Amino acid sequence: MAMAALAAVRRCRVLLHGAVKSSFRGSPSQPRSYSAGRLSVQERIERKRQAALVGGGQKRIDAQHGRGKLTARERVALLLDPDSFVEYDAFVEHRCSDFGMEADHNKFPGDSVVTGQGRINGRLVYVFSQDFTVFGGSLSGAHAQKICKIMDQAMLVGAPVIGLNDSGGARIQEGVESLAGYADIFLRNVMASGVVPQISLIMGPCAGGAVYSPALTDFTFMVKDTSYLFITGPDVVKSVTNEDVTQEELGGAKTHTAVSGVAHKAFENDIDALLNLREFFNFLPLSNKDPSPVTECHDPSDRLVPGLDTLVPLESTKAYDMLDVIHSIVDERDFFEIMPNYAKNIVVGFARMNGRTVGIVGNQPKVASGCLDINSSVKGARFVRFCDAFNVPIITFVDVPGFLPGTAQEYGGIIRHGAKLLYAFAEATVPKITIITRKAYGGAYDVMSSKHLRGDVNYAWPSAEVAVMGAKGAVQIIFRGKNNQADAEAEYVEKFANPFPAAVRGFVDDIVVPSTTRRRICRDLEVLATKKQTNPWKKHANVPL
Amino acid sequence: RSPSRSCHVVTTVFPSALFSFLSVQTFDKILIANRGEIACRVMKTCKKMGIKTVAVHSDVDANAVHVKMADEAVCVGPAPTSKSYLNMDAIMNAIRQTGAQAVHPGYGFLSENKEFAKRLAAEGVSFIGPDTHAIQAMGDKIESKLIAKAAKVNTIPGFDGVVKDADEAVRIANEIGYPVMIKASAGGGGKGMRIAWNDEETREGFRFSSQEAASSFGDDRLLIEKFIDNPRHIEIQVLADKHGNALWLNERECSIQRRNQKVVEEAPSTFLDPETRRAMGEQAVSLAKAVNYSSAGTVEFLVDSRKNFYFLEMNTRLQVEHPITECITGLDLVQQMIRIAKGFPLQHTQAEIPINGWAIESRVYAEDPYKSFGLPSIGRLSQYQEPLNLHNVRVDSGIEEGSDISIYYDPMISKLVTYGATRAEALKKMEDALDNYVIRGVTHNIPLLREIIVHPRFISGDISTKFLPEVYPEGFKGHQLTATGRKELLATAASLFVAAQLRAQKFLGDLRLQERRSWELCVELEKGVHMLGVSRSGATYTVEIDGDKLEVSSDWNLASPLLTVTLNGIHRTLQCLSRNAAGEISLQYLGTTFKLRVLSKLAAALSVHMPEKVPEDTSSILRSPMPGTVVAVSVKAGDTVAEGQEICVIEAMKMQNSMTAAKTAKVRSVHCKPGETVGEGDLLVELE
Fold this sequence. Notes:
The complex is a heterodimer. By secondary structure, chain A is α/β, with parallel strands linked by helices. Chain A is built from 20 helices and 17 strands. Chain B is globular, with a radius of gyration of 27 Å. Residues 1-19 of chain B have low confidence and may be disordered. Classes of the chains: A alpha/beta, B alpha+beta.
């Protein structure tokens, strides 16, 4: 796109740069041959403001562009509605006086971060955008203070915080003041957690202690090829563990979205990421006091989905794509998947039903048969807890053959990690609707938003099989040593490989025709919109971390 | 007969026909030994005639439309046709089990199998089709031509006998003189047909054709005959009863073909004058009479540019393209076949057979028209909507939303038939119908169909069986935008983008925003970048492109796959295939899908800084996505696989996962075998 657009876009680039240049009258890098005192305050204000607009200066801006990255301000302009950005602290400067930092040419109005508030599709959001052109975006005390200020305000008024990270790390010249700054931010990340949504978009380096701020936020997104997250870089890794690893392999977008699970999604480039972030923001409530947002919807809430009646294969060992189920049920097939490349045996993400944001959790039979393992449990649990914290109803599609057996899982602590998902579903007080599409076996049946964990509405499709385990295994135990295993298996299938055992006990509320699922969910959500449920008072719960 | 009667004969309006449906007692129960659209088609008429229906199906078809439509259904075996739809034992069992009195074979499968007809006769079950003698006589290319000659039917010069080996093939070819055509004696249509211009090609053609004949028909006899260059393919529908009466129901023009398979058909033909039509009709009838034909049949002719016509073959079954004949004659051919099978005489005389209006049929296939005018594709129809909201449109299909188009069966999605008082009217209707046809989840040939029906040569009737290779010598490349078309497309994309942007700001209980009235956008299309100004007044957008102004209005329903817009007063139906946050929009415009990208002026200006990325090609390597056991490997090195075709099956957690090809290619090497255990990321198969 970039290259193709180049020729025709050059015209408007000239326009854009022209606009910026013409408005600041005179370069900030020109020698200051006069005393500042001789300028009027008005002029000084103007000069500082203009200086703030160009950050580290044109040369560094060009270098930033050369790396395929946008500047802090360009990013803010793309993220927010046109002309909606209100900047804070453009005059703040760092207070370091060591190592020549006190020199005029080392002072930049606003320092290495741009902060403020603005609107995304009309809704309030607080933003900070680290400026790599000023000291590599490094975090000074002033930088941290600016971020803390907007976070405090965001919590006061109840609006999300978006951080655009592009920082080389701590401002080494400032020493402990920089470290203190990180801690101040961490504390606010923790205090804001569950109060307002916090989103991090990593758009450049983010290394060392700095990584813990994104890690504490609700969602971490990355830009492919130009962003990195790691505790220590390749050089240190080499010296300590003697491993040869590239920056990209160690902490690139692919690593974190597919291997470590640190990041929730990656985008092609800065523009793609920011535009997607706008789309994503529309799914979120502004705070824990806000209900799940409802947008205008053109998709009829009573739409039937005939394709679902034949989607689940007749043979219970055959896979199908749970995304087909999700896409056809939600509004306009619009599903914002979270962590699409990590623990693919569970699918989580946001969608809308009749305009209202819902969180979707679904086992994915296509990958590892949809079993629950360590990674998928943790992925699911974190998502469920976000939805619960921010009043987003949870819709769960169940087709799970059980927890994954094996030493790798047991040694890795599947008991502890599986418990997280169980805990998250049990604790959640938002509307919970569950559809068992096929298998709901064993403990995994209990975990997946079952009736027993306060599921509000639990449905089974006719293809549902709710049982302790598959027929073969069950028969081997019940009829151990007996000869008529095949008959016994047939009997077991007849008895348990259907929705009746659960339905007769009221563990599912109804057996529904798959094509009517959308209609049922939309109606239930209307009913459940006024659901009120509270857990017993506690200082805080003790989730099995 | 009014034109409006004709097209909806099978579906709704045709009161007098309905009366005739009820007036005679034929059979109580018919088994349809077929699947897909033709099984559904036959059942529709059965239902109208008050006849109970029995479907047969393979196990993968258990949920198919024809099974749901039938009163009873019997599974006759696993997916491969040789084990199910061609499995005579199982089908005979199904007949006994259900007590069906008659069998309609549809087309293909057992429809021209004399063995099957014999077995039915032996058990006293009526075969809805001609008797064994006619099937045998016409099914054999050699015999059929001898009979045709004897019946004074024009036949192709220089045709000869059965071929034993490649040397004999070359000798015969030289006797006839090149070019010659080589094909299976037992096969109908284009299957097993090769054209040779020299000895070497004859040998090759012999080898291919005999292989194909053996695998498709279980009969490797071949036929070599003179090839008529640049011919039209025009066929005559005949209808004959068991009392020696026979009629010709006019012609069908089937010249638009690719690889000898029909793509677009029409009735009548623009090419025939009444005299030629009558001459062809009369010869067809005399051939039918010569073999004591009863039921519906089709006599295929090749017609050269001087309107000389030559007998090609007779198809002793209901043809795929029969609906267009029904449209212009008002007859229900399936009903006629059932009546005839029961022994009723024909209801009509030749003088009563009209040509009312014009009918066009497009064969909608799940295939990629950009590859050799159509290579099969498979997949699940995630969204599917037939254009039945339009008047004078008939869709014969046997699939529905959610259906799988599998590798086991013909990739035809449907037959789309439009009708009009004139050819122009029928063609215009076809444009609308193709534009309104929603197919998602599989690659389909609507782009090609939509281009054929608007091509000047097609419109003027200047066609031959070489139409496609002549019109698209470089292969089909999709619709080529005109300057006006480009502007329409750009304006629609920009307006859609703005409509979506505006809606994104509409939250319940949030009325703070003043809606924006104007936008400056940058739209990229086919490597060109255009600056557009958009201003809004209600649901109408005024788009400025290079000094021109286009008014775009629509209801801007963002959930509908169809996008109906009025562009400067002209109605157009486009389809929005996808739309994402990054401004990428895929629009189907005049049948072809165009990829656009809409960005704000700011985003477009900044996009020059974005690094260009080379997409990583992982489509040629297939790795195991999980640890598991290889259950089956469906390919070997050197095989050609279609995109989406199963390559192997991995079992993990007692679940079978089908690994499919990411592209159409030749298999370079296979690195796994059944029973083997593989780890995650292990290389399974490499493609070229």
